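Side project, low priority. Logging it here so it doesn't get lost.
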Amino acid sequence: MNPLTLKATAKLLAKTLFTPFGPSRPSKKVVMKELKEVMKFDEASYETWEKVPFSVQNEGNEILGDYYPVPNAKGICILAHGFGKNRYAMLPQAQVFRELGYTTVTFDQRRFGESKAKNGTFSLKEATDLLALVRWAREKWGADTRVIVLGVSMGAMTVMNAIGHENCGINAAVEDCGPTSLMTVAPLLHEGLFKAKNPYLLDIIRKTAKHYGINADEIRPIEGVRKSTVPLLVVHGAADSAVPVSDAEQILEASNHPLSRKVIFEGREHAYSVVDYEKYKMTVAEFLGDVFLED
C-alpha cells in the first residue's frame, strides 16, 4: 500500500473503533443468526427465558439491557459483549451462568445495539457503565448479593478496567480473549483487515481518540488487573488470530489474586471458546466453586 492508502485505512479503522457503523453495529437478527448457525445456540430454548428490560443512567449515558431472573439465584452475573456485537451476543455465556444458578444481566455497550451514545471509548467509560450496573444490581437484589462480571474481547477490556477501580463491588471476574491494550491490538486488527502493517495507525488513533476526549494510550486494561484484588478467570482460544495467547499469559501474570487462573481452549478462534460449551461451563463452575467455597 502507498502512504495515501495507508493513511486512509488508518483513518477508517480509527473512526470505526470509536464510532462504529454499518456491519460494526449489527442488529439483533444478525447476531442471533450467528449464534444459531455458528455457536449452535438453542434460540427456541432462549425464548422460554423470563426476560425483563431495564434502563440505567450513568454520567449522561443511558444503559439499555435485559435481565433474566432464575429462582433462588446464587447471585448475579453481568455480561459485557465485544466490539461489533450487541447484548444478544452474550446469550451463550448467559446460559452457562443460568445453568449454574445465576440471574444474568446483558446490556448494550456504548454505540452498539440500542445504545444512543454518540461514540464509544473502547472500554474506558464503558467500565464506569459496568460499575453503574454493579451498583444497580446491589440496590435491586441486595447489598450482599454476589456479583460476577464476564466480558468477551472488548467486553473483557471493560471488565478488566472495571475491576481496577477501588471498591468496585465485584466478587469475581471472567475475561475472555481480551487484549492487554488498545494500542497493541490495533496494529493486529489493521493487518487482519487490510493485510498490511501501517506506520501511521497509532498516531491517527491517538488523534481520533483525542477528538472524543479520550487518551488512547490510557486504554490499557491490564493496568486495571494490576490494581485489582478481584479473582480473575482468564479464558482464551489457542487459535485466536485477533488477540495473541501471550496477552492471556500477561493478564494472568498481572493478577494479584491467588485463585486467578488461565484456561486455554484448543482450536478455538477469537471469542469462540464458549462453543466448547461443556468445558466452558465446567471451567467457570470450578473457578466459582473455588472462589465461593462451593462443591
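Brief comment: The longest strand covers residues 61-68.
Revisit when time allows.
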